[in-house]
Amino acid sequence: MAKERIKKKYEDMKRVLDEDLRITLAQLDTEHEATEKVVEDKIEDCYHLTQELDQLLASISTVVKTQQGNIQMDEFKNDQLLSLTINLLLFIRSQVPVTKKLFQSYASDVVLDADTAHPKLIVSPEGDSATYTETWQDVPETPSRFDTTLNVISQSGFSDGRHYWEVEVSGKTYWELGLTYPSIPRQGREEDSWLGRGKESWCVEYFNGDYTAWHGGVRHELPLLAGRQFTRIGVFCTFPGGLVCFLGADTMTPLHCFCAGTFTDSLHQALCPGHDNEGTNWKSLKVCDAKRSPPVL
Fold first, then answer.
1. Alpha-carbon distance values, 290 to 165, 259, 270, 271, 293 (Å)
2. pLDDT in tens, 75-98
């Protein structure tokens, strides 16, 4: 009889502990989701704040250039303004390493799928670079291969979590980078297969010094970035938030951000190294190890 009572007490203790464990784990899951949502919101807030700051600085620069012949600023105010701008710059730069570490924590491995590459692209054996060539490669004709535009996409897609990757773009005058559903057209009309021209993909395009963002055939010009050159471009996306962000990875400068809503399929990394552009664009696009990016400038 005593043995049964002892056994029942242990069973009661186990029930209490199991319930406590369930509640604790559920609470931890809730806190984790809430923290991730805060991080997503902060990333989006930082992006919009930086865009507003860029526009404000551009406006100030325009006013100063317009009025500098008419206004004589005294030395004291000039020193104050200089000190303020220096401190602002130091503050902004102090935040960049934190941003860099955050994105690096989401770094994903990327292997390009040579079976999807246009026949005028050479994909490295490691699947980490794509190079344009004028020679049409002797490759199998398959439904997965792009045959009208110079695209290649990754072997693997993803459908949850947060992902970040970087591509080296230095020395190039034309490129496109982005993300795409596997349903993006591979053959047919050329425009249908371009990144960002349909609802299946998102991209940023660089051509002769100008940046443009594309999705659903809608062109978003990015005039504040005109003339800027970056060594690496970073691409970040998050499920289920539906956020796609492009950054100049050297300084974590926001290029453009799409709030896509809920993604309806898995996403693949996509890139287009572009044609030769009158002999100025022969260099490869190379996927980098985003966990080991060069130091922030």
1. 6, 23, 16, 16, 5
2. 666 666 666 766 666 666 666 677
